Structure to design on (295 residues):
């Protein structure tokens, strides 16, 4: 199978490329810096039109929303990185429609906004806030590929694996200074990176898979319970909370409020109903797996 992937050098993308190569797929990685491509065949963005001849197109490109304070310039990069990459791939797919092709576009549970204790499946409407606005625009562009390919939109939760968001948490916990963020009452919709890759492969290989799917484990937890579970995985205490005011000072009220102090209680209703099974459905097992992989 010929596959074109954007974001193929990232936290999810690179191990996914290696997984695809291991099963014999021809994988081209869209990049602006070929030197960063350690797996797959580098493909300049100027050649994004090659996606028109691919059996599967996977779009994981986008500026990290948690990589720094949300200045106006950074917010612009977060939006534009998704708009530009997705628009280029949609244009390529529409140049040569083929309903046998699958177009898989990354998205995020930020789509739902901050909704307290409300349980959110794929039927829930979009919410408010910067992240919800970003994700709506991202998905709207991806939907322009409908009719030219089988479109699958995957809304990721917090992905657990060596590096990524978990990598930033490990040091304070290992030093015995870990704990909940703010009140700890906010929900965390998490998923093991292994299950992210398995769901992407499932979407590629099953022609009936189409539309929007939440890519989150079936058991979201409150942040305070996440902290306790991470402490157990590391055999360290987890009782030192990070004050909300300190996060607002460090990251700004908007970013701290949406990314760190807020959350969503998201469940993967469609994937579960359509037969996908999670290798890591429970947090303790997922964190043990992620921590052992990070050593």
């Amino acid at each position: 199978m010929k596959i074109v992937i954007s974001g193929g050098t990232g936290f999810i993308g690179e191990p996914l490329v290696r997984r695809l190569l291991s099963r014999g797929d021809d994988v081209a990685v869209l990049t602006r810096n070929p030197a960063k491509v350690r797996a797959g065949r580098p493909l300049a963005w100027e050649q994004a039109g090659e996606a028109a001849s691919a059996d599967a197109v996977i779009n994981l490109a986008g500026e990290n929303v948690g990589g720094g304070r949300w200045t106006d310039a950074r917010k612009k990069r977060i939006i534009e990185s998704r708009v530009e990459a997705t628009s280029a791939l949609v244009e390529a797919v529409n140049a040569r429609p083929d309903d046998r092709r699958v177009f898989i576009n990354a998205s995020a549970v930020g789509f739902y906004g901050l909704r307290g204790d409300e349980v959110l499946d794929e039927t829930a409407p979009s919410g408010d806030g910067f992240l919800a606005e970003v994700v709506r625009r991202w998905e709207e562009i991806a939907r322009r590929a409908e009719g030219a390919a089988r479109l699958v939109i995957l809304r990721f939760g917090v992905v657990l694996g060596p590096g990524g968001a978990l990598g930033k948490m490990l040091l304070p916990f290992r030093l015995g200074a870990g704990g909940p963020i703010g009140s700890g009452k906010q929900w965390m919709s998490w998923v093991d990176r292994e299950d992210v890759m398995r769901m992407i492969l499932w979407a590629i290989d099953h022609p009936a898979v189409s539309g929007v799917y939440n890519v989150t484990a079936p058991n979201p937890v409150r942040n305070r319970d996440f902290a306790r579970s991470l402490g157990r995985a590391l055999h360290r205490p987890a009782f030192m909370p990070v004050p909300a005011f300190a996060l607002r000072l460090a990251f700004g009220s908007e970013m701290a409020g949406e990314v760190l102090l807020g959350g969503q209680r998201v469940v993967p209703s469609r994937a579960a109903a359509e037969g996908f099974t999670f290798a890591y459905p429970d947090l303790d097992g997922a964190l043990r797996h992620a921590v052992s992989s990070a050593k």
Residues 2-294 form a domain with the Rossmann fold fold (CATH 3.40.50.720).
